[in-house]
Amino acid sequence: MRNYHGVIFDLDGVICHTDAYHYQAWKQVADELGIYFDESINNRLRGVSRMESFEIILERYDGVMEEADKIRYTSKKNEIYKKLLSNMSPADLSPEVKETLEKMRENGLKLAIGSSSKNACFILERLGLGGYFDAISDGNQIARSKPDPEVFLLAARLIGEKPEHCLVVEDAKAGLMAAKAGGMDAAGIGDAAGCELADYHLKTFHDLLTACNCEPI
Ligand code: B16
Ligand code: MG
User: Fold this and answer.
1) pTM of the predicted protein model
2) Which residue has the CA at smallest separation from atom 12 of ligand 1?
3) Strands 6-9 and 200-201
């Protein structure tokens, strides 16, 4: 176990759960295009950027889509998604997540977000976490999405810590790959908890405290 100075959290699937909203928004777009789309395809979109997600959906599209149309449909998906996100409130932040973040802070750990989402700040505001993190690295600031380590390396730089002193928390395999490629330890939660790439296999969010040498709750 390393002595971590910083913890970098993925957002969707770790701090909050927006899967159902992504699903509903993509489903509307897929239906309009007559493309088959289900929950298992939606699971493949976890941690993947918006345009790359659409490319996965288009695997079942009969034909070739022009770039301008791809932009139009991904923008439409985002409009629907943002409307759905407006339903979120601080009540969507689980007490377990909140307690764990507070405890880590008390222990002097720096906390950052490392998310592929371009809506990260909007989501954090909805959850009542606007301004809570020491740094936010998100889809608006990077050129290459996970499994490239860029988003996590930027987060580490923004909190002024070396990658080897940071622990990444992820729910997607692409995110675990990104953390390892960046020289960071990685904790898998949810879908990624059983992944062999993870240094820690979290059953609960509270388990993070033990990984970070903090007193358990
Ligand atoms: P947006 P994360 C990712 O967030 C989601 O897991 C993924 O499903 C989504 O396609 C991606 O953000 C882009 O989101 O359309 O909001 O820019 O898991 O990296 O926090
Ligand atoms: Mg995620």
Assistant:
1) 0.95
2) 117
3) unpaired
